[in-house]
């Protein structure tokens, strides 16, 4: 029996990502069951999975219905397409069919109520019904009634995964998703769909089909204001065109009447006026040329003045450089004089110091000599005694 994983959950709980993950791990494919994503258009509003997010996993029953042609798409319509897609597009592993028409016919005779609940190709449940009757001589449907366990029959062996999320986390995630939708161009997408509806002269029912999608009906008031604005713009444009055409026709009519009324004389007057205008234009051109010549002369004079100013600045720069050089020379001379004076002072100080040292040495020698003389005298006196 074919196996099928059904991913359920609230909007924004990560069903699409989980579906891709499971299909990649189990080498499977994804069948869309979202009631809005089956329609063409509003990809951002319905949060259709992107190509890069699908990771090359085949996705089926997404964006295949025209929302303007299939407003009321029922569950029965979807199931028919679902079965058709299973046969044409989904590559399940081939399984050997052990159930023959005879076995199913036998079940319909033994337990017709059970047979009506089971698909003719559901070999597992058909065998279970036949084996139960063979072992117990009772209908399985009767036992199910007694136990009050009327278990629904599925065509596939299903595993149901309900994706849940804490409300605070879900609210935060949905708020972020709305911001991403707006940044991705939600407004332009809605205006495109709105204009498409107007072009096809269709009425929108915000409670049915694609147009009940979250993110479209919330723009209803905005679209109404947008329509009024577009209508005013169109009316204004039409009025301008109408007013322009009327003025052109009126002017042409008046001109024709004037030419017929005044005849050749007025035509000559018009020609004279045109000649006068031409003469006036020639004078204006000459005046403009004279003004240009004056401006050119002024420009030349300005250029000469700029050159003179530049020359004066150059002379001033030369004089400044000379003054700076003279100041530097004077400073150097002054420094040399100061150095010479310092050298003389140093030499004089050294001479004075040397003289003082010589004097001290002489004094010391004299003192020593005096001491020696005194000592000799003392020695002589002592010797005499």
Automatic annotation (TrEMBL):
PANTHER family: TRNA DIMETHYLALLYLTRANSFERASE. This is tRNA dimethylallyltransferase. SUPFAM superfamilies: P-loop containing nucleoside triphosphate hydrolases. GO terms for cellular component: mitochondrion. GO terms for molecular function: ATP binding; tRNA dimethylallyltransferase activity. Keywords: ATP-binding, Nucleotide-binding, Transferase. Gene3D superfamilies: 1.10.20.140, Crystal structure of tRNA isopentenylpyrophosphate transferase (bh2366) domain, P-loop containing nucleotide triphosphate hydrolases. It comes from Anaeramoeba ignava (Anaerobic marine amoeba). Residues 324-347, 362-385 are annotated as: Disordered. Belongs to the IPP transferase family. GO terms for biological process: tRNA modification.
